[in-house]
Amino acid sequence: MNIQHQTSIWHDAAALHEQPVGRKRRLRRPGSAKYIWFGIFGTGVAIVNPILLALMGIGMSRQAREVVFNGALASLLAIISGFLVIRRLLSVPLLQSYGYVAL
Q1: Does the pLDDT value for residue 74 go beyond 60?
Q2: Does the predicted model carry a pTM greater than 0.90?
Q3: Partner of 54 for a Cys bridge, out of 2, 68, 81, 98, CB 3.0 to 4.6 A?
Q4: CA distances from residue 30 to 4, 34, 37, 55 in whole angstroms, order as listed
Q5: Any long-range contacts for 48-54 (C-beta under 8 Å, 24+ apart)?
Q6: For the chain, what is the radius of gyration of the CA atoms?
Q7: Among 53, 75, 73, which residue's Cα sits nearest to residue 63?
C-alpha cells in the first residue's frame, strides 16, 4: 500500500514568504570587484613601500627623490603592462580554461 502525503503548492509558497519582517538581505559585491580592489591595494603597497624604504635609506643608501620616483614610475608601468599582457593572453580561446594564466 503506497500512501504519500501530498501537500499543495500554495502551502509551500506561503511557507516561503513567512520570513521575519526585520530581517534584511545583505547586499554582496560582485566577485570581480573584490579582486579589483585587491589588485589596486597590492599595486599601492608594491609602489609605496619601496619608495619609503629608499627615501629613508633602509636596506640601501639614501636615494634622491627623483631617483626614487623614477623607480616607482617604472614599477607602475611594469605592473600595468603585465596586467595588459595577462588580459591579452586570456583572450586566446584555449587559455581561458587555465586558471594559472590569470595568476
Answers
A1: yes
A2: no
A3: 68
A4: 43, 7, 11, 38
A5: 50/75
A6: 27
A7: 53
Helices (H), the chain: 9-16, 31-56, 65-90
Say which amino acid occupies 76.
L
Asked if 60 contacts 54 with a C-beta cutoff of 8 angstroms, the reply is: yes
**Which range in 14-23, 52-61, 66-75 is most confidently predicted, on average pLDDT?**
66-75
* Tens digit of each residue's pLDDT (9 = 90 or more) over 25-69: 555 656 778 878 888 999 999 899 888 888 888 878 888 889 889
Question: Residue 37: CB partners within 8 Å, gap ≥ 6?
Answer: none
- Residue 50 CA to residue 39 CA, distance in Å, equals 17
pLDDT, averaged across the chain: 76
The dihedral through the CA atoms of 101, 76, 70, 45 has a sign that is negative
Residue found under cell 570581480: 32
